Amino acid sequence: MRRWLSRYWQILTRPSMHFSLGFLTLGGFLCGVLFWGGFNTALEATNTEEFCISCHEMERNPFQELQGTVHYTNRSGVRAECADCHVPHDWTHKMARKMEASKEVWGWLFGSIDTEEKFEAKRRELAEREWARLEANDSRECRNCHEFESMDFTAQNSRASRAHSTSLASGEATCIDCHKGIAHELPDMGPDFEASQAHSGLASLEAYVAHLPNEE
Ligand code: HEC
Ligand code: HEC
Ligand code: HEC
Ligand code: HEC
């Protein structure tokens, strides 16, 4: 074994006699491109809705719920897919989220949410992870499509323009503070919902609106 290894090592380190350095460099470069391309294609494949749904197919599933919302059908025909809201666009954050998501594979192997009962029981915990993510990144995934600078307050209903021109504009609140449950049904939050929101001082959209200065 040792002999075999040392011979192998010799072959690897011996200068190549058959190929010019230029050929090897070019070859290495091409292999790199092919590998990288393949890697990114594979990465893209894990961003498709089909991929997400292949696991998230439980009885009351997030996809079914999404279909009832404005993010699935609307007058403009612009549609948000799973990855638009759940996977960062830029490379570094995307990789970080993909690494983190590898634990979803464990969850899947061990069936952490493979029945409706288990999903419902765990739903709040999962939703809270997602909220924490969006709160920490100032709702970055929402802002990929909804740019604050491009919001025309005069075209919004009065509740919306009041909230957006005050708490959102000042940075006191971010999209997800007020817009929970826009894509899926909210988990059963129970009476301690308000308490769980205490850190941000926000209870819910309605509570938020109640605190806004009156119109006029
Ligand atoms: C291999 C199966 C599998 C695939 C593919 C998959 N998920 Fe998951 N996902 C799970 C499981 C299982 C959980 C629950 C993890 C747990 O129990 O902690 C989960 C949890 C989640 C959560 C809850 C938040 C969190 O941090 O746990 C979100 C959001 C989510 N997945 C979105 C997606 C999206 C978007 C895609 C496609 C880009 C996707 N998933 C692809 C199995 C999968
Ligand atoms: C892929 C682009 C995209 C992403 C990502 C996205 N949205 Fe939207 N959103 C839309 C479109 C398109 C509409 C519908 C516009 C229309 O009315 O024609 C919409 C509508 C809305 C509405 C109006 C709801 C209603 O009932 O009229 C709210 C609120 C909203 N989005 C919040 C969010 C939040 C919060 C996030 C992040 C969690 C988010 N959006 C992520 C594209 C997106
Ligand atoms: C301070 C709370 C608050 C924050 C923060 C907030 N919104 Fe809103 N938003 C509202 C309220 C209130 C409405 C009106 C809802 C209603 O009338 O039921 C609204 C409505 C909307 C609408 C629909 C507008 C219309 O006229 O129909 C969109 C789109 C929207 N918000 C997107 C966003 C996005 C994207 C962000 C983050 C960049 C955000 N909101 C942050 C409170 C907020
Ligand atoms: C418009 C943005 C948006 C889209 C599109 C979207 N989600 Fe979500 N998703 C959210 C938000 C925000 C949460 C956090 C809980 C909430 O507010 O409903 C969430 C929560 C979840 C959860 C945690 C359990 C729960 O129900 O709260 C899962 C799993 C999930 N999404 C999977 C998916 C899958 C799969 C798709 C595609 C079929 C998808 N999501 C499409 C915004 C989105």
Automatic annotation (TrEMBL):
Binds 4 heme groups per subunit. Heme 3 binds at residues 142, 145-146. Heme 2 binds at residues 85-86, 184. It is a single-pass membrane protein. It is found in: Cell membrane. Heme 4 binds at residues 175, 178-179. Belongs to the NapC/NirT/NrfH family. Heme 1 binds at residues 52, 55, 58, 104. Residues 15-189 form the NapC/NirT cytochrome c N-terminal domain. This is Cytochrome c-type protein. Its main location: membrane. Coiled coil: none annotated. GO terms for cellular component: plasma membrane. Keywords: Cell membrane, Electron transport, Heme, Iron, Membrane, Metal-binding, Transmembrane, Transmembrane helix, Transport. Binds 4 heme groups per subunit. GO terms for biological process: anaerobic respiration; denitrification pathway. A menaquinol binds at residue 82.
